[in-house]
DNA sequence: GCCAACGTTGGC
DNA sequence: GCCAACGTTGGC
């Protein structure tokens, strides 16, 4: 079982939206490195739900991957904000997974607080200039982050 | 609103 | 295939 961190702008899709829906597709990822990580996802994996581009940014809760990766057809929809004009049914490089709400942290674990935690030096989220929206998390990093979020 | 960092595009 | 210009991400 693997661990992941996935970013979403809460104005578009937040931990509360996932809680209300219980289950939802995680789609709209349009970066190849992130897509490659999504290809490795398996049902039963868990992920940290990160709120980005908000005040303050940080970890909001936990969800579970509940489907295998599948083609992200939102890329084909001209009305979709993540429409990819170069994608077609024959050439659809983007992937989505279905995710399920697990829990919301009692309080957001803010990025500024995450930076203060020891043992996260390798976390891509904290590395300068990193903009990955989907990244793998080690079990050690997972333990540090979920423990801090529960405190 | 600013801007650093990075990815993508397109001319050559 | 290089690389300058441009667009996007996302923290501050």
From TrEMBL:
<dbReference type="InterPro" id="IPR047197">
    <property type="entry name" value="THYN1-like_EVE"/>
</dbReference>
<dbReference type="InterPro" id="IPR015947">
    <property type="entry name" value="PUA-like_sf"/>
</dbReference>
<dbReference type="InterPro" id="IPR052181">
    <property type="entry name" value="5hmC_binding"/>
</dbReference>
<feature type="domain" description="EVE">
    <location>
        <begin position="2"/>
        <end position="146"/>
    </location>
</feature>
<protein>
    <submittedName>
        <fullName>EVE domain-containing protein</fullName>
    </submittedName>
</protein>
<dbReference type="InterPro" id="IPR002740">
    <property type="entry name" value="EVE_domain"/>
</dbReference>
<dbReference type="Pfam" id="PF01878">
    <property type="entry name" value="EVE"/>
</dbReference>
């Amino acid at each position: 079982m693997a661990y992941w961190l996935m970013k979403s702008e809460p104005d578009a899709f937040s931990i509360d939206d996932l809680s209300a829906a219980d289950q939802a597709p995680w789609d709209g990822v349009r970066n190849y490195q992130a897509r490659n990580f999504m290809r490795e996802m398996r049902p039963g994996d868990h992920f940290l739900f990160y709120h980005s581009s908000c005040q303050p940014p940080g970890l909001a809760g936990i969800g579970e991957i509940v489907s295998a990766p599948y083609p992200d057809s939102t890329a084909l929809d001209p009305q979709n904000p993540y429409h990819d004009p170069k994608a077609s049914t024959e050439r659809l490089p983007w992937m989505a997974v279905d995710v399920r709400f697990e829990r919301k942290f009692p309080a957001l674990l803010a990025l500024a607080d995450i930076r203060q935690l020891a043992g996260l030096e390798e976390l891509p989220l904290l590395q300068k200039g990193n903009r990955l929206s989907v990244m793998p998390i080690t079990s050690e990093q997972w333990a540090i982050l979920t423990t801090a979020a529960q405190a």
